[in-house]
Design brief:
Blueprint (H helix, E strand, L loop, with lengths): L6 H5 L6 E5 L6 H10 L4 E5 L9 H16 L1
Parallel strand pairs: 1-2
Length: about 70
């Protein structure tokens, strides 16, 4: 699967991270959970009954607003 990042590379991510996956995506929810657990402070959104490329607007807006608020502190 691309990109191919090592566990150490994922653990070194410092930016706020939101992982979004559809439960019918080519990326399995199990893989998304593994990545979510590896990136410090990451958030995970699993969207039911959709495939690849889903972008849940409200979830993304909330994430961006929370990230902006955290950066201001």
């Amino acid at each position: 699967m691309e990109p191919s990042l090592t566990r150490e590379e994922l653990q070194s991510i410092k930016a706020p991270t939101l992982i979004i996956v559809g439960d019918g995506d080519i990326v399995t929810p199990e893989h998304a959970v593994e990545v979510f657990r590896t990136i410090p402070g990451a958030q995970l959104c699993v969207v039911p009954r959709v495939g690849h490329g889903v972008m849940p607007k409200e979830t993304i807006l909330t994430f961006v607003q929370e990230a902006a608020t955290t950066d201001e502190k």
